[in-house]
Design brief:
This protein has 156 residues and is an all-alpha fold. The protein has one domain. Helices cover 80% and strands 0% of the residues. The chain is built from four helices and no strands. Helix 2 runs antiparallel to helix 3. The longest helix has 56 residues.
Length: 156
């Protein structure tokens, strides 16, 4: 079961309250652990989204190739039917089928490109998240001693 991220604060006062107590709802070690877990979850989910979109792009491209091969095969059948003087209605049906297949190829190609772009966007978001919050998480993980209790240091 996937862990769910906490919703964003509704107002500035909610954000200030979270800042004072830590994103996990508690200061000190508990808040730090919740922040570290949230950082990891967000990073993993962004990587998973990027991978899923790359898989979708690859799958759509595979379907594109298959439909393109089918259209070429139908064209071959149409040519064979013409050479055998088959009923023009049958030849027309093959021509229509081939046309429909080729018309959807543009949509499939656009979908594959969009999925690939979304994969790159998710990867960039993951890298940005790691760049923004990774050094803080790393510093906190390697910090000697205990994490300070943030409510104690708050200016209340």
């Amino acid at each position: 079961m996937a862990a769910e991220l906490e919703p964003l604060p509704d107002s500035d006062s909610d954000l200030e309250a979270e800042t004072e107590t830590g994103a996990g709802g508690g200061g000190g070690v508990v808040g730090f652990l919740m922040d570290a877990i949230t950082f990891t979850i967000v990073t993993v989910k962004l990587a998973a989204a990027s991978t899923a979109m790359l898989w979708l792009s690859h799958t759509v491209k595979g379907a594109y190739d298959y439909v393109e091969e089918c259209a070429a095969h139908v064209d071959g059948q149409m040519d064979l039917a013409e050479s055998l003087n088959v009923d023009p209605a049958v030849i027309g049906a093959h021509r229509d089928a081939s046309t429909v297949m080729r018309e959807i190829l543009d949509d499939a190609e656009a979908l594959a490109e969009e999925a690939q772009q979304m994969a790159a966007d998710f990867q960039a978001a993951k890298e940005g998240h790691e760049e923004d919050y990774g050094p803080v998480t790393e510093a906190m993980n390697n910090k000697p001693g205990q994490v300070a209790d943030s409510p104690y240091y708050a200016n209340n």
